Amino acid sequence: MTDHLTHSAFVSAVKFDDDGLVPAVAQSKETGEVLMLAWMTKATLEETLATGQVTYWSRSRRKVWRKGETSGNIQRVKHAYIDCDSDTILLQVEQVGGAACHEGYESCFFRKLDGGKDWKTVDERSYDPKAVYGGSK
Amino acid sequence: MTDHLTHSAFVSAVKFDDDGLVPAVAQSKETGEVLMLAWMTKATLEETLATGQVTYWSRSRRKVWRKGETSGNIQRVKHAYIDCDSDTILLQVEQVGGAACHEGYESCFFRKLDGGKDWKTVDERSYDPKAVYGGSK
Question: Which of B51, B84, B111 lies at the smallest CB-CB distance from A122?
């Protein structure tokens, strides 16, 4: 990941959807845990980048949502990325208070599919990994 | 993360948007890297869970997108999570070929905002962390 963008190039690159929103994924810089996905307008993205503190747009409340405003569990931006299609943002954050979720969990993704320790293996391989990667796989 | 769901409870819980889509974040099980965000219909979610191999819905091509169909860089599901609002899915995957992005990078988030090593610190704290967490923070 070596392509560095200036602030203005970053914001200009973002493709907002028909509602003027872009999804932003927040990941803990410290633990690597994916914390949440929420949405940003251009204004809340700019506020986030200017202040270094994450501000989303609440689609349900239809208002600016300064993460942690009520709980104190703010998110401080450490690194920001944009994806290849320019329609998703990834923020690596310091999650103050250790919990991003309003239900008290570190991550909003606290419900897990009970698929066993590892997933079932697909029956058909699209190719033989041994042929591609050698015997170690 | 202890709340385990059965397959049917998992799929039933998902709130698809007005276009019948849900965003799915793929994270490397091995490296923790956030690889990409793409979209799923109920049918492609069910196919993903049934086969253990990630299938998205391509919004641009308006068709089922079996990830890796062309490149061979398939994603094998290891764990699946749903968020507190039931409107985002997180998949921890084995990224075959080591690269999720069609541009050859491990992650689609290869463009980074040049914000320095760490972000600027916000000027105003919403509260005093020492008062909440004690002297260790």
Answer: B51
